[in-house]
Design brief:
By secondary structure, the protein is mainly beta. 2% of the residues lie in helices and 34% in strands. The strands form four sheets. Strands 4-3-6-7 form a four-stranded antiparallel beta sheet, with no helix packed on it. Strands 1-2-5 form a three-stranded antiparallel beta sheet, with no helix packed on it. A two-stranded antiparallel sheet has the order 8-9. It is elongated. The relative contact order is 0.20.
Length: 164
């Protein structure tokens, strides 16, 4: 029985966690420095549900990009992730370094808004004049929705009101 010796593939770069929710984790990583002499065909994402020692495949489709969102995770549970690369010759790389331990939970950040400081100090305008109120950033997690209002009444876009 004959066997073909395959050049080993270098492991992909350590995955970086770019987003965490109560049931998903989004990872990005760098491709292996060496592809084993054959074109890379995709990546295998593995997860470990702590305190288990067993690694399980976390992707059910072929992942060709260096990014993937692992879904169907359990809120409050701890996970670790690692990546393997595969090439056209059928070789599979050793696993990447493992992520730090991640706890699945929604990230909350109180909303914040940055408004033009001259408007905050007070603005005097004559009837019929145009005023522009600029909010340079409206941030928060999850991203907040915003409305402009005065005296408890919301401004709606119209012939005299523009909201961009």
């Amino acid at each position: 029985e004959s066997a073909v010796a395959l050049d080993p593939i270098d492991p992909p770069g350590k995955p970086e966690v770019i987003n965490v929710t109560r049931n998903s984790v989004t990872l990005i990583w760098t491709e292996p420095k060496y592809d084993g002499g054959h074109k890379l065909t995709g990546y295998i994402i593995e997860k470990r549900d702590l305190p288990s020692k067993a690694w399980m495949k976390a992707n059910h489709i072929n992942v060709q990009e260096c990014a993937f969102t692992v879904t169907d995770l359990t809120e409050g549970c701890k996970y670790e992730f690692r990546i393997k690369a595969k090439n056209t010759a059928g070789a599979i790389s050793p696993p990447s370094e493992t992520t730090d331990t991640i706890v699945c939970k929604d990230e909350y950040e109180a909303p914040s808004i940055v408004i033009d400081s001259t408007v905050k100090e007070g603005l005097t305008v004559k009837a019929g004049d145009t005023i522009v109120i600029t909010a340079t950033s409206i941030l928060g997690k999850p991203p907040p929705t915003s409305v402009w209002s005065k005296g408890g009444k919301d401004f709606k876009p119209s012939d005299i009101v523009q909201i961009e």
